[in-house]
TrEMBL record:
Organism in which the protein naturally occurs: Humitalea rosea
UniProt GO molecular function: structural molecule activity
Superkingdom field: Bacteria
Protein name: Flagellin
Keywords: Bacterial flagellum, Cell projection, Cilium, Flagellum, Secreted
Entry-linked Pfam families: Flagellin_C (PF00700), Flagellin_N (PF00669)
Residue ranges of domain Flagellin C-terminal in the record: 206-284
Function: Flagellin is the subunit protein which polymerizes to form the filaments of bacterial flagella.
A GO cellular-component term linked to this record: bacterial-type flagellum
Subcellular location(s) of the protein: Secreted; Bacterial flagellum
Amino acid sequence: MALNSVNTNSGAMVALQSLNRTNDQLNITQKRISTGLRVSDAKDDGAAFAVAQTVRADVAGLQSANEQLGYAKGIIDTTLSGLNRVSTDMSEVKGLLVKLADDAISADQRSQYEAQYTDLRNRVASTLRDASYNNRTLLTPDAAGPAGAAPTNLTSGDVVTVRNELGTTYTVAETDAATLTVAAAPADSTAAIAALGDSGDFSTVMNAINDTLNTYGSAARYLDSQVSFNKEKMDALEGGVGALVDADLAKESARLQSLQIRQQLGTQALSIANQAPQTLLSLFR
């Protein structure tokens, strides 16, 4: 190949190839710096990008699961608030039953105690009926109960919620409010004594309330634990994705300066190589 040619400039071709490689590397570095990612799309690293996208989908699923768990937690916490109030009211119910069990009280006193008892009974039923969250309740309303007909817009039934990114569900069973409903005022002291007995109405209802409190208290603790675990899992997954696709910006910054210098030198080399044929003109002077 002729070394002194105006048609073929080998030096310029070599300089141009080197400059193009430098520009390609510079574009990659600038992309990493602007996005903060070593792998921002499939062109950078198809396998790593596919893994990252799968993990990101899992994180999105966990976020949605925690939102749904929050809804279920709202229902359970509202139910527990109502049950705690009812449990407190049951202390007053027992106090009135003890008074009604005394055969020595006058008819007028018994009438007053019965009125207080009935008001308290209605209050317990109303509390159970009002323990709803977003028109949803775990305590199945008793339409025939002392507080009257159940609200028509109230939905009852088991609460089934998604608990993780795989769609696994967790179920909280409903409770029949009739088992928590206080019976009508006893007709006499004998009936009041019977209600206070181990198998009497008061003990039965009180035990049912305590059992329900324990059940929903355990469910609330489970949901809190699941939400906390999901958050920890999201942090771990995001950390793994970061290790896989995040760019080392300190390294990329140093690389950027190096490539910028190489780009300037490459441009100068190409300029010098392009001027080489001009020297051949001196041979014809």
